[in-house]
Each structure stands twice: as structure tokens, then as C-alpha cells.
Design goal:
Elements lengths: L1 H52 L2 E7 L10 H11 L4 E12 L5 E13 L5 E14 L5 E10 L1
Parallel strand pairs: 1-5
Antiparallel strand pairs: 2-3, 3-4, 4-5
Length: 152
């Protein structure tokens, strides 16, 4: 009976410690994702299309209104090469970050602002919201697995 009680206490203690350790790891990953969002925005601002694409996984899904869904970074590059406008500024802010208990999938939800000139040279100013699904890569970095946004 004492052995059974000891095993029960050991099991409960291990479960509590594992849960606390996992929660701490999830918090670390949330901070890493917030930093990834910041780095993503900086890369886009500094390097344009290639900076933008550098944060997408090779097997990313890109969902653009009025266009077919693409399922690779190569297809995404081909599609964006036709429409990319270097005369706009895109900024965004995550307002929610959540990480799966497994620590390998996450999502961010936030708002965005786009300003600049369209291809006709007319001033534009748009705002909207987005959801980005992130997948942890083999090297420990986070890359975008799927991305969608809509205009306010």
C-alpha cells in the first residue's frame, strides 16, 4: 500500500512539474513569435519581396483574395512577382499569439496598415486584420505556414 501511495505522489508531482515546464516553454515560444513578427516586418521593409518571402516555409499556403491558393514558396514568389509594389509601406502588430502545447505550431492575429502609392501613383491608405499560422522548422526557427488578411 505504501508503494502504491508513493507511486501516486510521484505521478502527481511529475505531472505538475511537466505542466509547469511546458507552460514556461510555451511562454518562451510566444516571445519568440512576437520577435519573429518584428523581424518579419523589418525584413520586408528593408529587402522588399525577398525579405517578405524569407519568413515563409517552403510549403507555405498563401491565401490572397481573388487568386488561387498557392502551396509553395516558389508559387508564392511567382504570383507576387506580378503584383509586388515597392511604393507601399506595410506595418503590422500582433494582438494575440498562441502556441500549441506541442510547441511546433502557433498562430498570430493582428492588425495591419498599408500606405503609399498604388501602381497608378495615387495615394493609398488601408487598414485590416490578419491571421498567420506559424510552423517551427527543424532548425528551431518559426516560418509562416499559412497567411491571410482582410481589409477593414
Amino acid at each position: 500500500m505504501k508503494k502504491l501511495a508513493f507511486l501516486a505522489v510521484l505521478l502527481v508531482t511529475s505531472s505538475v512539474l511537466f505542466a509547469a515546464d511546458n507552460k514556461a516553454k510555451i511562454e518562451v515560444e510566444k516571445k519568440a513569435l512576437i520577435q519573429a513578427e518584428t523581424d518579419f516586418e523589418t525584413a520586408r521593409a528593408q529587402r522588399g519581396l525577398e525579405g517578405w518571402l524569407s519568413f515563409f516555409a517552403e510549403d507555405t499556403a498563401n491565401i490572397i483574395p481573388g487568386k488561387p491558393i498557392t502551396f509553395s514558396k516558389a508559387d508564392m514568389r511567382e504570383q507576387l512577382n506580378k503584383t509586388w509594389n515597392p511604393d507601399i509601406t506595410l506595418k503590422w502588430q500582433p494582438v494575440k499569439v498562441d502556441v500549441a502545447a506541442s510547441g511546433d505550431l502557433a498562430y498570430t492575429i493582428g492588425t495591419w496598415q498599408l500606405t503609399g502609392k498604388n501602381r497608378k501613383g495615387e495615394a493609398i491608405s488601408l487598414t485590416g486584420k490578419y491571421v498567420t499560422v506559424w510552423k517551427k522548422q527543424a532548425d528551431g526557427t518559426w516560418k509562416v505556414a499559412a497567411d491571410i488578411g482582410n481589409e477593414d
